Amino acid sequence: MTSRMNDTEARKKQILEKATIFFAMKGYHGVGIDEIADACGVVRGTVLKYFGSKQGLYRAVLYGRGNPAGDYMKAVCNDTGISVPEALKHLTEITMKQFKENLKYMRKDLEDEELLQNFDVLRLPVYRMQQKYLEKIIERGNREGVFHVENPRIRAYSIMFAVFGIAESLEEEEAMRSEMEEMIKRMLE
């Protein structure tokens, strides 16, 4: 039974990886289930069995593979035992690692810079979700007197936009971490 579950999980992972590449290269409307199934060596029914529909597969790409850290960040936001500055560090670290992993994964398959525009569509759900977590952290910081931010929602969007820009522009992890932490600190002063 365990072997069968491992085979199923491996097959689902393979389908998600191929679908991510195809959606990034061709966009949602430019790729079909049959094309993804063929690339994985399975039939259309296998993809539909695991994901229900093309839309279900796309959602799994956006929210499943695209944001595996969501549960972790939700827990950090809800844990009042973690200080606000520590929660910010967690968010910065997970965002940095997640984005670099996804970008590296995509860059090995996408050599044409123009194709990376579709990659932005794939990372938008990550951006939105992490903006919500950051907003909660800022609101908590306001309640605890750590921050005095008038509009946490707008500030969170601004910070996450800047974080993604920094993550995309720097290769060296320590430089990226340092710039992110400095930028977040300045935007919350």
Describe what this molecule looks like in 3D.
With 189 residues, this protein is mostly helical. The chain has 9 helices and no strands. It has helices spanning 2-26, 33-40, 44-51, 54-65, 70-78, 84-107, 116-143, 152-169, 173-187. The termini are far apart. The relative contact order is 0.11.
Summarize the model shown.
This protein is an all-alpha fold and 189 residues long. It contains nine helices and no strands.
List keywords for this structure.
elongated, 78% helix, 189 residues, 0% strand, mainly alpha
Summarize the helices and strands and which ones pair or pack:
Layout: H1 2-26, H2 33-40, H3 44-51, H4 54-65, H5 70-78, H6 84-107, H7 116-143, H8 152-169, H9 173-187
Helix pairs in contact: 1-2, 1-4, 1-7, 2-3, 3-4, 5-7, 6-7, 6-8, 6-9, 7-8, 8-9
Estimated helix fraction: over 70%
Rounded Rg? 19 Å
The structure class reads mainly alpha
Low-pLDDT segments:
none
Mind summarizing the main beta sheet? Answer: none
Number of strands: 0
User: Taking all residues together, what is the mean pLDDT?
Assistant: 83
Portion in strands: under 5%
Shape: elongated
Number of helices: 9
Q: How are helices and strands ordered from N to C?
A: HHHHHHHHH
Query: Please, what is the oligomeric state?
Result: single chain
Alpha-carbon distance between the termini?
A: 55 Å
